[in-house]
Design a protein that fits this description.
The protein is an alpha/beta fold. Helices cover 57% and strands 9% of the residues. Strands 1, 2, 3, 4, 8, 9 and 11 form a seven-stranded mixed sheet that branches. Strands 14-15-16-13-17 form a five-stranded parallel sheet, sandwiched between helices. The protein has a three-stranded antiparallel sheet with strand order 5-6-7. It is elongated and about 110 Å long.
């Protein structure tokens, strides 16, 4: 969590009548801020009854500490306040005396101004004053603090208990504490000073609270990052604790509840029997806002019968979204909503799986647990907004997930509502063809005008005329009034009320501030590169600015983000894991035009800077963003090789079926970015083919490599180096699909064509394996004998390719009639594999399986049985009881038992193998035929033995 420092002061002045409540209330505020709001305390507790000197020293030290840490500072004071000379407001210390001056009292305005002038990295200031006559302080702060912050950048909130009159009985502090405890149903994720002012006016009618906010812009309600404590009323929202909570705050902050909006909401709620509803409308029509209102139905009077539990989980998609990110978001939200029940369902699913690599992660983590949680009368509602937002390849996987959730018979208790922009291909996609469609038209010009008048009051004549000239189907819809309300028309002329003009005017309103004029443009370029939604961690943006040549501290970057107002979506505002992005897809095009008009290479440079930033800063949030966005930034910065390397690295932590889905998603991005003959596009196609085969579809992989060879041959020629690699891979899949003889022919030809020493050695390894599989055991052994020393010299003795080849070599040595030598080789190899690859790596388990075989052949059946059982236990743990490799290990152990005359043991272990093989692979599969024959033979022999 970002540094947020709090200093709480309780002060009873000896020269004034004793109040009696300051210490108690200060202790309660201190507790609330540090335990609920997660503010870091300055001191071991409240500062109680300090002297003037001590109060000044502690406040100064607090500013210095916050500045050194780049932290937000909160100062809360409860006690006596006094105005002198109608202008100077003093906080009174225990030893303050009349007449008041800078020696006998703490002049709030002057002292804070002095400290503000000495800070360089303060990340916002909040001052709370529960004292009499504090209104003078608010006026002084408005005159002096604001002028300073306008020149230097910065954000602050000042909330005081009184105007020029008295404050009574700690009502201000008591109201804060009560509101912290109960929450405010009409407010956002976190409680801001602006939220508390109405509560104070209602609860403390004998005094008038005053609130002053400055964030450098026209943004109403101040900086969302300067919050006090989380809003307890939001604790049951689906998105609480997620980055999307900040986006929902943004969307509902100035919602226009027109009659059509309310009717649409009622229509969606009443149609709850439909498993899939699609809310369709143009940009700016309010689709995301309606989704947000379903998450927070208490904001709509006509939905007052609903609670926050109405929506179980909600996902707001963006350009970085993938099926993996959707899955993780749903898992987190379902876990938060159902707690132990969802966790238990997931554990039960994993326990019952017999093949941990056969099913998709979505099936395992979402579909099956939701099925187990099905109860009579229970409805699980999931919102997925922005179905048109992800990249095309990633979008297809999300659409398939939506189809599964809404058509699978196991999930008849699940309801899904999706938001889709009209005019996109997604509207007519077959995966949502069964949806009940709800069309949301954009607001009329009259409604736009009414919203501007409601917010702004009178509209200047020129703007009024411009708005009236807009067409009825105004592009941008409700975004128009939101932009207008954040433009200071005293300083900026609005030349047009169309969306592009307003975005330009709004952006330039920030850029025109002297303190932002240098970095506003690169920040705009980075936001345009990031895209929509609170996705990119703010520290990553800060590092990217450094890469672009604009090094700024994080607090100053946050100043610009806040100043950009409606253009930016923020997740976890004010914290170190804050994420940012554009708040609406409709802003992307205009902002790109703005930055590229003045900086033609802005987008390329921004993507390059973000790509470079991944190497400079780390953290869980940055890693999570990189997982979904880094390849896009690499591709956009013309570093496709880095995109390949990044995805290859990700593959090492996933199952083949997940890797296949990942490459299928990303392949579209490679195709959109690179020409057909680009080596990295061909590499991406090869990766997809490889993982398709390893995910259990070898014939599909063979066909994909055949297509790749055909395309490469047409583009480069049959013997071109770019064609040789897929030809080698195609040959290997011929082996995997039962044609080792064809592979030998293909690899023999390729061996004469390849010139690269490393690739030539790998072809020799593949040829040796294929030779053995084709039945020439001695030939395979001799080939391995010849090339293995060269491979080890080139790659090193512990390279995975070398270890794999050593395992295969031992196999051919044993099968060629020297089991003792094979065993010795494997006794040396297995510990190396366990050390280098790990005991659960598949190559380690194959080597150990091979060792068991030759241990048995050398006359040590007990040792062989132990090794086989160890491999089987590891296989079952890692891959499940019905994974192909587990079944093969079971069959090997059963054959071992049978080979040593223990037919009953063989049947006990393998009698169900024919049924399993037949169910998984069909009755004509070679494995099904062979294992059926084996079990029949073991059964007959067992009967004879009896």
């Amino acid at each position: 969590m970002a540094e947020r420092l709090a200093l709480v002061v309780a002060s009873e002045c000896a020269a004034f009548p004793r109040l009696g409540f300051t210490g108690e209330l200060a202790a309660a505020l201190y507790s609330a801020f540090t335990t609920v709001g997660h503010w870091l305390p300055i001191g071991d507790g409240p500062l109680v009854d300090p002297t003037v000197i001590e109060l000044k020293r502690r406040v100064k030290a607090a500013f210095q500490q916050a500045d050194e840490l780049g932290a937000t500072l909160l100062i809360a004071f409860i006690g006596h306040g006094f105005t002198a000379n109608d202008e100077d407001f003093y906080l009174l210390a225990a030893d303050s005396e009349m007449p008041l001056d800078s020696d006998s009292g703490f002049n709030l305005v002057n002292a804070v101004a002095e400290q503000l002038g000495n800070t360089r990295a303060l990340d916002g200031l909040i001052v709370l004053v529960d004292a009499c006559e504090a209104g003078t302080g608010a006026i002084g702060a408005g005159n002096r603090w604001v002028r300073m912050l306008e020149k230097t950048a910065g954000r602050m909130e000042l909330l005081v208990a009184s105007d020029d009159g008295n404050a009574y009985d700690g009502c201000f502090s008591r109201t804060l504490l009560r509101t912290f405890d109960t929450g405010l149903p009409g407010s956002g994720t976190n409680l801001l000073c602006a939220d508390l002012t109405p509560e104070l006016s209602t609860a403390c009618q004998r005094q008038t609270a005053r609130h002053l906010s400055f964030n450098g812009t026209q943004v109403r309600r101040g900086d969302q990052g300067l919050w006090l404590v989380p809003n307890r009323s939001r604790s049951r929202d689906a998105v609480t604790g997620r980055p999307a909570a900040g986006l929902v705050d943004h969307l509902v902050r100035s919602v226009s509840l027109t009659s059509h909006v309310q009717e649409t909401l009622a229509d969606i709620v009443e149609a709850g029997g439909d498993r899939l509803q699609a809310l369709i409308g143009p940009a700016g029509a309010g689709k995301s806002t309606l989704m947000s209102l379903l998450i927070r139905p208490g904001l709509v009077e006509t939905l007052d019968s609903l609670t926050a539990e109405f929506v179980t989980a909600a996902v707001f998609l963006d350009v970085t979204s993938t099926i993996e990110s959707v899955l993780l978001e749903l898992c987190d939200q379902l876990g938060a909503r159902f707690g132990a029940e969802f966790d238990a369902a997931r554990r039960a699913v994993r326990a019952e799986l017999t093949d941990l690599e056969r099913f998709s992660a979505f099936e395992i983590e979402i579909v099956r647990p939701l099925h187990r949680m099905r109860k009579a009368g229970r409805r699980i509602r999931i919102l997925i907004d922005g179905l048109d937002q992800p990249e095309e390849g990633c979008r297809s996987s999300v659409l398939a997930a939506v189809a599964t959730l809404t058509t699978d018979e196991r999930l008849r208790h699940v309801r899904v509502i999706v938001g889709v922009r009209s005019g996109t291909d997604v509207v007519d996609h077959p995966d949502i063809a069964h949806a009940r469609r709800v069309h949301l038209p954009p607001p009329t010009v009259r409604e736009v005008l009414a919203e501007v008048v409601l917010t702004e009051g009178a509209i200047p004549h020129r703007l009024d005329r411009t708005l009236h000239e807009l067409p009825d189907d105004v592009r941008g819809g409700w975004l128009i009034p939101r932009l207008i309300t954040e433009i200071d028309r005293r300083d900026a002329d609005i030349d047009g009320a169309d969306l592009s003009s307003l975005v330009a005017t709004r952006f330039h309103a920030t850029r025109r501030r002297r303190v932002h004029e240098e970095i506003a443009l690169p920040v705009g370029a980075l936001l345009a590169a990031v895209g929509v939604g609170p996705t990119a961690p703010l520290p990553l943006i800060c590092e990217a600015l450094q890469q672009l040549g604009w090094p700024v501290p994080l607090p100053r970057l946050r100043d610009v983000v806040v100043d950009l107002g409606v253009l930016v979506a923020r997740g976890h505002p004010g914290l170190d894991n804050e994420r940012v992005g554009l708040s609406h897809a409709a802003f992307t095009g205009p902002l790109r035009q703005i930055v590229c008009a003045q900086w033609p290479t802005a987008l390329f440079d921004a993507h390059s800077a973000l790509a470079a930033a991944f190497d400079a800063v780390t953290g869980s949030d940055i890693d999570a963003y990189a997982h979904t966005a880094a390849p896009r930034h690499y591709l956009a910065s013309e570093n496709s090789a880095r995109a390949i390397a990044f995805l290859d690295a990700a593959d090492t932590h996933r199952r083949p079926i997940d890797n296949r889905a990942s490459w299928a998603n990303w392949l579209v991005a490679f195709q959109d970015t690179l020409p057909p003959q680009h080596p990295d596009l061909l590499a991406a196609r090869a990766r997809l083919a490889r993982w398709t085969g390893e995910a259990g579809e070898p014939f599909a992989a063979r066909a994909m490599f055949a297509g790749l060879v055909e395309d490469c041959t047409a583009m480069f020629g049959r013997d071109h180096p770019q064609t040789l690699l897929p030809r080698v891979q195609l040959a290997n899949w011929h082996v995997q699909t039962g044609d080792p003889e064809g592979a030998v022919t293909m690899l023999t030809e390729l061996l004469d064509l390849e010139r690269d020493e490393r690739e030539k050695l790998r072809i020799r390894a593949d040829l040796g394996f294929s030779t053995g599989q084709a039945g020439d055991i001695v030939g395979a052994r001799d080939q391995y004998t010849a090339f293995l020393p060269e491979l080890e010299r080139l790659l090193g003795s512990t390279h995975p390719d070398v270890l794999h080849s050593r395992d295969q070599y031992a196999r051919w040595v044993g099968e060629a009639g020297d089991p003792e030598r094979a065993r010795r080789q494997l006794l040396e190899l297995v510990p190396i594999c366990e050390s280098v690859l790990g005991p659960e790596h598949t190559d380690t388990m194959w080597a150990k399986d091979n060792l068991a075989r030759w241990t048995a052949a050398c006359g040590d059946p007990d040792g062989a049985a132990r090794l086989y059982r160890e491999v089987l236990a590891t296989r079952e743990k890692v891959s499940g009881t019905e994974h192909p490799f587990t079944l093969m290990t079971r069959r090997n152990l059963a054959q071992f038992y049978a080979g040593h005359g223990s037919y009953a043991a063989a049947l006990e272990l393998g009698s169900d193998l024919p049924e399993i093989w037949r169910r998984l692979y069909g009755p004509k599969d070679r494995g099904t035929v062979d294992v059926t024959r084996d079990v029949a033979e073991w059964t007959a022999r067992a009967q004879i033995d009896r």
